[in-house]
Design a protein that fits this description.
This protein is mostly helical and 161 residues long. 85% of the residues lie in helices and 0% in strands. The protein has helices at 4-28, 31-38, 40-47, 49-81, 85-140, 152-158.
Length: 161
Amino acid sequence: MAKEEPQSISRDLQELQKKLSLLIDSFQNNSKVVAFMKSPVGQYLDSHPFLAFTLLVFIVMSAVPVGFFLLIVVLTTLAALLGVIILEGLVISVGGLSLLCILCGLGFVSLAMSGMMIASYVVVSSLISYWFSLRPLTQQNTNYDFLPAMKSADFKGLYQE
């Protein structure tokens, strides 16, 4: 049972790797992605992967506050149609300042999170590659061919008091 488990894990990892490579190929062959990667911004982000990952984390995290801000803008616009013009300016100003503060905080949080995620990725991938590089060595040494042949006379000299 113990010998079957590592084989199934490696088979699962190979299957996962194939699926991920197919997903990455589908992204890279998309015409909009190809056009973006040929632009100056795409080339800059391609040469600075940490910045690109930080930007991606920031965009994902800032979607909710921006959505709430746009909801407030729509609601105050509807209220302005009913005659509350001063309230609209006040709410949009306060909401805009709040959004600015939230987005600045999210920028710092996304920078920290992407740094921790990249560090975790490097550590985990190093550990996995180290573990898989040691497995063939331990499997070769299980037959004990590496021990030199010793005669019984050698053992007598070792344990005499």
